[in-house]
Amino acid sequence: MANHYEGNGRRDQTAVFSVSTAEMASQIMMESDAASRSGRFGLVAPNRFAVRLHPRDWAVRSDLRAIGRELERQVEDESMERGRRMEGPVRVWFEKHPPAERGKVEIRATERKGRRPAWACLFLGTKALEITHNQAVVGRAGHADVIIDHDSLSPDHALIWWEAGQVRVRDLGSTYGTLVGHETAARSQPIPIGTPIRFGKVEAQLRLEG
């Protein structure tokens, strides 16, 4: 069984061999692009990445855990910016891999469901509903990512996601529609912070987390 380390979140700019953290993040995103699949409303990206090293390269590094945490942060941010959905938290770890070329890394991408941290909340008065997934489905059905139990909502009512520095919403053909302020969201609409969103007859406010 391959040895590995996992982490989740602190900045570290240390280079690994001749490959910088930024270059490794770029390689991971290239592998993520290749391994992404079509979901119901857009691309679903892998969320687990093994960075494979030659055993001799592994032996000379003592900072792999910190580098893994920084890579997780970068991959999470870049995947969100691209509007990708991930079914679980981002995890990056390092493995000894004898076939790997010395001084270089190989990436293996996989997908695993799990609890993701909230990137935003919908407030219905004092009630807060976490948004943990990108391309989050808001609706009345039990399978929705954000469940609002109200008769005016359709089972799959609207889609909320982050992409290119904006939160956006799109109605999914619901019976009573979705409004951002006074604008219909029949097509993709940005959500300015502080602007009320109306799902059917339910009004909500969006707040970003983190």
Q: What would you note in describing this structure?
A:
This protein has 210 residues and is of the alpha+beta class. The chain folds into 2 domains: 21-110, hypothetical protein PF0899 fold (2-Layer Sandwich), CATH 3.30.2320.60; 120-208, Sandwich (Tumour Suppressor Smad4). The protein has helices at residues 21-35, 55-59, 64-81, and strands spanning 37-38, 43-44, 48-53, 91-96, 106-110, 120-124, 127-131, 136-139, 146-147, 158-163, 166-171, 178-180, 183-184, 189-190, 197-199, 202-208. The strands form 4 sheets. A 6-stranded antiparallel sheet has the order 7-6-16-15-12-13, with no helix packed on it. A hairpin with a 2-residue loop joins strand 15 (197-199) and strand 16.
CATH class of the largest domain: Alpha Beta
Radius of gyration: 20 Å
Supply the CATH superfamily name of the largest domain.
Answer: FhaA, phosphopeptide-binding domain (DUF3662)
The end-to-end span amounts to: 36 Å
* Structural class category: alpha+beta
Query: Per the principal axes of the C-alpha atoms, what is the gross shape?
Result: elongated
- Main-sheet strand order equals 7-6-16-15-12-13
CATH topology of the largest domain: hypothetical protein PF0899 fold
Total helices: the number is 3
In the CATH hierarchy, the architecture of the largest domain is: 2-Layer Sandwich
The succession of helices and strands, N to C, reads HEEEHHEEEEEEEEEEEEE
